[in-house]
Amino acid sequence: MAASVRKTRQETGAQLAHRHVFGFKSGVKGNVHFTDDAHLLYPAGHNTILYHADHKSQIRVFPGSEGSEGISSLALSPNRKFLAVCEKFQERAVCYVYDVTTGKRRRGQLTYGECDAREYVCAAFSAENKLLITQGGPPDWTLILWSWDKAKAHGAVKVSNLTGSMIHECSFNPQDSSLVCIIGDGVFKFFRLQDGTFKGIPNQLNKMREASNQNYICHTWLNDDRLIVCSEAGDALLFDSGGEFKMVLPCSPCEPRSLLCVASFSRGFIAGGEKGVVTFYERSDDAKETSLLRGARVKLDSSMSGPMMPSVGAVTAMTVSPAEETVAIATGSNQLLTFSLSPTDIMKAEEGNVDFALTSFHTGPIFGLDVCVRKPLVVTCGTDKTVRIWNFVDRTQELCKVFNEEAFSVAFHPSGFHLIVGFADKVRLMNLLMEDFRTYKEIPIKACRETRFSHGGQFFAAVNSNTIQVYKTYTCEVVCNLRGHQSKVKAVCWTSDDFRLVSCGQDGAAYEYDILKEGRRVSEARPGTGTAREWSQKGTNFASIVSHTDFEAATPATTLYVAGSDKMLKEVRESSLTNYLESNAVLGQLALAPCTQALIAGVAEQELPGSLRCYTFPLTGDYVEYQAHAAPVSRIRITWDEFRGRRSGGSAETRPLYLFSTGDDGCLCIFDIKKNGPPRKDKDFGLGYADEILVTRQFLDEKQATLLEFERRVEELDSRIAFQLRHRDGLHKEKMAEMQEKYSEEIETERRKFEVLREEKAEMEMENEEHVKTLEENHARYLQEQQESFDQKMIVEDQRYKKLEADLEREKQEWDAQHSALLAEHAQVIEQMKQDAEKIQRANRETMDRDIKEKEMAFKQHQETLAQLEQDADREIEELKEMYEQKLTQEKDDKVRLRGQAGIHQKYHHDLAGDMMEMEKDVKDKAEESRKAEERILALMKDKDSNEKEIKERDKTIADKEQRIFDLKKQPPGRNEAQIDPKTADIASMKTQTRAMEDELNDYKLVEQPALVALRIGLRIGWWCKALQISQLQMKQRALQEEGALSTAILAELGKKQKLREDLALIKRFKLDLSDCLETISEPKALKESVTALYRTRHAGYVVDPEKYVQGGAKRQDLDTDMQKEYNRQRDYLEKSVDSLKRKLEKDSQAHRIDNMRIMQENVSLIREINDLRREINALKHERQAQDDRTSTCEQPRWGAGVGVASRRGGCGIQLVWLVPSIPGPPCGSTGWSHHNQVARSFGATYRKRGGLCT
């Protein structure tokens, strides 16, 4: 086992140098700054980039710190020379300061020991660039003041409110560095810096908006030293330089999250919000107007030029260039845009004047990455449903296409003409055209997350869950299906000769497959050698695998390098673990560059930046870590290695090596791989990058047609421009002649004016010389006079000074004498005051002694009085206790008596409820029996109706047959004889069937008809019995209700009698108390006490009504009332139970009625079907009967038998329907008439004569 050891860059086999980073990190505060008009600072991955906009290159990279959890905020000094980078750490936040010009980090790191925050959410420099403030994050939200050049903290203060609300931004006043502004969620504060400490300044906004608790998101200082603060609700607040609130701008949008970031410029400020909306606010031209007006409103999604791209999202940061020519805009979808600030471009914002600062980037994690061999191209795909082609030599984006679904994997053909993209439902093979991707084959593999072309491009492998499918590139034929993994395959890799394929998966296994031997594993392909090419480790999820074949060795052998979730890098050879390194971090991806003796590994720890480790190859444990991504590394690729293109005795390509890495932060990082030591002296037989492109014939034809059209337009424009030039030359010559003549005249006029002015100038010079000479003479004379006057004044002032000096000396002597007298007088006064104070002190001491003695005497008297009062109170308490105990005993007796009465009444109510429930049950049973009887009656009535209808149809059929017989009788006898003989057998069989049907009909008449009559009679008797039982139950219910009303009246009468007894007792007690009062009528004082006692006794009861003198009756009345309420409650419950049962009975009856209707409808449909069948039988039998009649030799008609069809259905089970076809009957004699009439009555029909025949 070899432990991982970090070395310097010179000690490892290769070095990585940042070449370019395609991406942007939007979750950083202050993530875009202009250092000058051409240089732009922004974060990308775990780095800060200095980008040159004119050269389209990244001239400097400020990498993040090792061990950091990511960059949290950026700040640029006002002189644009220093950059503060705040990073998040596990223990506490750290801030570093860089020199933008040199790229060096200043000595010392800014970290505050008393701050528990793990990150700084915001930072800002002072106007003189010497001070820096950093705003700590949760939990304490501490604002820290730094002298950053000395790495020294001057002071700190906790700025959040009591609830620990979030702080969003902090800043210095650009004109007064001692004033600091803090804004956050419900927090808006100003601080004054005094001696390195923060002093809070009260502001009017806290009082005005404390109730609404606004969330202040962003702010900016305008050029006129005023402050703009924006809230989440869409209000823009205006403050003066001292923090005094002025107004809410009338131009505020007042839309939620419409002001997420602001940036000031000379004409006003710019605000960005949700959905990519940027609004310009400019000053009014009116000098009296102090407010701002809303100008142009730009929607970035509709204003961007170029192909359709995903939505840019919300605007998170903006900055204006020093010359105010360009504004840079950062969006929530990791895009960096630029927009011109010229008034013309602002007015034309909707015409597509918004451009990408570099190019468009991925807006989410990147899933797939691959590099081309013959072209300087690399392809990526991610969650934003885009596939992008990047040129790593020109540092540009060649092509971007948006699909309708996410692409999970991508592979680039070595030629650069073909792509493989894995989608959710299929894998698509595409041709890379000049301006588009065109699909030419789709393979049904779902959610393919790994696909690789072979190094020669003749094969490609696609992962289908735990199976690897290998295809031929140009025919898409399946070469083999590689199986063996028990779980999903995570990575595949081709060996350098393309004969074998290695793979690893979530099952912790690594396999080597031989493609030339139908995809069998190497151990299976060579069973006799015993050298298996497979290795597994249970419980480990392998994420990446690479292979290396040493062709210079005597026996080339393949070595596998795998990394997974066990935080180890393993080297496997001949199916055995030969070496492993502890990485102390999860390694997600591996890439091998043998020529530079380097193995690159990407760190894939969740919630941590994804760095790249460059291990020395062969593995010794030494590595160097490079900062790359802000999230775990998802893919790593290296361009074609010169070592892989060489065999023993051959030569290699000398093409430079590049390393590409992508991460979940949406960034594509490109590094140069440089080998330490002297370069190889190999001959350069390599080829440069190809510049061929793949286009379609249609594209070429369109371009040719467009080119011819442009040539024709150019010829037309040349001729038109030549004509216009000739025409303009003529016009210009004419104008030149006119202007030359005009200017000649004007020049002559001006020359004459010049001569006149020169003469006037000479005259004025002579006058000025004379005037100056006169002024000099006057000035000399005035100066001499002033000198003489000053000398005279000085003599007078000197004499005055001497006099004042003598007066001062005399007054000083007088003051000394007065001072001595005052001191003596003051000493006498002090002595007198001391004597008076001593006298007053003695008098006060005597008074105090006297007061103490009086206090002690009063205290003794108070104690005696208190003891006497306590004895009196105890005696009164004992008396009251005895009285109330008597009352309590009486109340308990009354309670026991009333509880017994309540139990009796409750038992009576329970009995009544049981009887009522039994009666309801009987009513329900009777109703159910009644319902069944009704259903049976309805079924029988339905049978009766159907039978009557059938009889009518039979009558009609008989009439038709009689008419047919009559017609046959009229025909000649010989005409039908030829038809009679063939039908004799059929007629005999039909006659037998007719007799059987007639016998069955007679049996029914004798058996079923009496049963039907008896059933009807039984149903009527049952219905009458049910009605009688229902009436009896209703009478019982009325009797119970009358009995309940009677019991209620009895209870009311008992209550009245009890109340009367209590009133009589009240009157008796009142008379006794009143007589006691009358005994003291002769003594006024005693009478007063008796009346007072009577009043107290009266109001000591439970009722304060002045007309009732009762001490316990109210309680008994309350008990009677409670009993009555309980009775009423029980009665209401029973009534509600009866109502609910009635509703349930009605609901059940309705349901049974619906079932009966449904059954009746089914019966009707069955009857219709039976009638249709009957008609068909009638038609056949009509023909048969006609033939039978023609062959009959007897004139008398004979009996025919009926046909019976039974169908039994209904609610109680069965319904009967009889079908009796019409048949000719016997002659209409007396016997025949009575017989037919009896049969017809048995079916509920009548018998009549028609046409001489009985029907």
What do these coordinates show?
The chain is an alpha+beta fold and 1255 residues long. The chain is built from 10 helices and 60 strands. The strands form 15 sheets. It has a 5-stranded mixed β-sheet with strand order 1-51-50-49-48, with no helix packed on it. The protein has a 5-stranded mixed β-sheet with strand order 2-55-54-53-52, with no helix packed on it. A hairpin with a 5-residue loop joins strand 39 and strand 40. Helix 5 packs across helix 7 (984-1078), helix 7 (984-1078) runs antiparallel to helix 8 and helix 7 (984-1078) runs antiparallel to helix 9 (1113-1191). The longest helix has 274 residues, at 697-970. The radius of gyration is 59 Å and the shape is extended. It starts with a strand and ends with a strand. Mean pLDDT is 81; it is low at 523-532, 643-653, 976-980, 1098-1119, 1193-1233 and 1245-1255.
Give keywords.
alpha+beta, 40% helix, five-stranded mixed β-sheet, 1255 residues
Tally the helices. Answer: 10
Question: What fraction strand?
Answer: 25-35%
Helix share of residues? 25-40%
User: From the structure provided, what is the oligomeric state, counting identical versus distinct chains?
Assistant: single chain
What about the largest sheet? 5 strands, mixed
Structural class call reads alpha+beta
What strand line-up does the widest sheet have? 1-51-50-49-48
| Nearest-integer average pLDDT | 81
Radius of gyration: 59 Å
Distance between the termini: 117 Å
- Total strands: the figure is 60
The parts where pLDDT drops under 50 for at least 5 residues are 523-532, 643-653, 976-980, 1098-1119, 1193-1233, 1245-1255
| Shape by Cα distribution | extended
InterPro entries: CFA-57 (IPR052993), Quinoprotein_ADH-like_sf (IPR011047), WD40/YVTN_repeat-like_dom_sf (IPR015943), WD40_rpt (IPR001680)
Protein name: Cilia- and flagella-associated protein 57
WD repeats: 359-391, 482-515
Coiled coil: 700-950, 1124-1190
